[in-house]
Amino acid sequence: MRISSYSLIALIGILFGCEKDDICSGETATTPRLVIECFDAANPNTPKNVNNLVVKAIGLSGTIVFNGVSKIYVPIDTNNDTTQLELIQNGNDTDTSNDNIDLLTLNYTRTTVYVSRACGYKMNFLLSTNGAQFTDTTPADSPWISSYTLEKNAITNENEVHIKLYF
User: Quick count: other Cβ atoms within 10 Å of Cβ 152?
Assistant: First the structure.
C-alpha cells in the first residue's frame, strides 16, 4: 500500500510538473523584410523579372542576388531608423562597367512586438512621410528605376507588397 501511494504521488508530480516544450514554429511571424515588386515601366500592370540584380546595404558586408524574379525580399536594419540599399542592375556579372546603381533610402520608426517565450520579439517598421526615396548614385548613367510607388507605410508582414518599382 505504501509503495503504491508513493508511486501515485510520483506519477501526479510527473504529469503536472512537465512544461510545454517551447519551440518556435517556422510559421510564426518574425521580423518582416521589405517586399519590393518590379513592373514593366511601359506596361505598369505587368510584373517584370529582374536579372543580375544585386542588393547591398550601405555599411554592411554581403550582398543579396536576385535572378528571374519579380518580387524581392530585403532585410531592414533593426538597429537604426534608416536603411540605405544599393540596387545594382547588372551587378552579378564580372563586368563592373555595366553596373547601374540606384540608392533606396528608407526612413522609419521601429516597434518591438512580443511574439512568444519561444520566439522572443520581432520588429515592425513604420515608414515616415517620404519614407522611401530613390536617387541615382552615378548621374552620368541615369537611373535604371524610372519610377516607384509606396504601397504600404507599415511593414508588419511579408504577405503584402510595400514598394512597386517600374523599370
Answer: 15
